[in-house]
Amino acid sequence: MNHSSRPEDIVHAEGAQLDFSRSMSYGDYLQLDAILNAQKPLSPNHNEMLFIIQHQTSELWMKLMLHELGAAIDCIAHDQLGSAFKMLARVSRILEQLVHAWDVLATMTPPEYSAIRPYLASSSGFQSAQYRRIEFTLGNKNPAMLKPHEHRPDLLAQVRAAFEAPSLYDESLRLLARRGFPVPASHVERDWSQPYVESAAVEQAWLQVYRNAEQHWELYQLGEELTDLEDAFRLWRFRHVTTVERIIGFKRGTGGTGGVPYLRKMLDVVLFPEIWRLRTDL
C-alpha cells in the first residue's frame, strides 16, 4: 500500500478534528449517552432488545410528528399555507418510516414474543401519550382515552390540551370559511373536544374547491395534503394490525384490549370524511 493512501494518512490530510476533550462532539450534541443507555431489558431473552428499540424509535418519530403537526396547524390558522404544506408532507414521510418499522418487528416470531410477554406486565402501546395526542390532533377525539394518563398529571395535561384544541381538520375548515366558502357555523366554532360530525355542507364546500382547482389552488393542495396524510396513517394502522396478528394471533393485548379485533375496529375510523366522500361526486 502506498504510504500516502493509508487510512490514517487520509484522515490527517483532511484536517478532520480528532480531539474533543474541549469541544462538543457528535455524541454530546445528540445526547447519545442518554439515548443509548435507555434500553433496559427485563427478560433474559435476546429478542427483547428489538422490541424495546422498535417502540422507542417509534416514539421519537411520533415526537417529530407532533412537532410538525402543531406547527402546521398554527400555520393554517395564520394563512401560511406554503409552510404548512411542507410540514404536512414531512408528517406523511414520517408515517412511511413508521410503516416500514413494522417490517423489522415482524421478524419476531410468536415463541420469541411469548418469552418476553410476561415481563411487559400491563404496559402497552395503547397507553402511549404521544400516540393519543396524534390521534386527537388528527381529530379522533375520545374522552375515554384520557383516563390511562390520569396517574401522570404532566402527561394528562398534554393529552388534554390536544383533546380540547381544534384538530388539523377543524383548523382547515376554519380556513375554508375565512376564504368565503359556506362552511356551517357549527363547524367553525364548537366544543372541539366533541367528535367530528360529518356534514354535507362541508362536502359541498370542498367540492367547490376541487371543481375549481386552479382558482383555489392552495385549498386544493391542502385537501390533497390531508388525503396523503390520512392515506399514510391508514397504512400505519393496517401494518400494525397485521404485525400484531402475525406475532400474537388473537390473544388479548397486554393493555387489556381485544388485540387484533380492537385494532381492526380502528381501521374503520375516517379522519377527514368529506375529503374522501367528495371523490365519488367529482
What does this structure look like?
The chain has 282 residues and is an all-alpha fold. The protein has one domain: Methane Monooxygenase Hydroxylase, Chain G, domain 1, CATH 1.20.58.480. Helices cover 62% and strands 0% of the residues. The longest helix has 32 residues, at 217-248. The chain is globular, with a radius of gyration of 23 Å.
What keywords describe this structure?
282 residues, mainly alpha, Methane Monooxygenase Hydroxylase, Chain G, domain 1
Count up the helices.
13
Number of domains: 1
Nearest-integer average pLDDT = 93
Which residues form runs of ≥5 with pLDDT under 50?
Answer: none
Strand residue percentage = under 5%
User: For this structure, what is the CATH class?
Assistant: Mainly Alpha
The helix/strand series, from N terminus to C terminus, equals HHHHHHHHHHHHH
Structural class: mainly alpha
Gyration radius (Cα, Å) is 23 Å
Largest sheet: none
Write down the overall geometry: globular
From the 3D coordinates, which CATH architecture would you assign?
Up-down Bundle
Number of strands: 0
Q: Please report the distance between the alpha carbons of the first and last residues.
A: 69 Å
The amount of helix comes to 55-70%
State the CATH topology: Methane Monooxygenase Hydroxylase, Chain G, domain 1
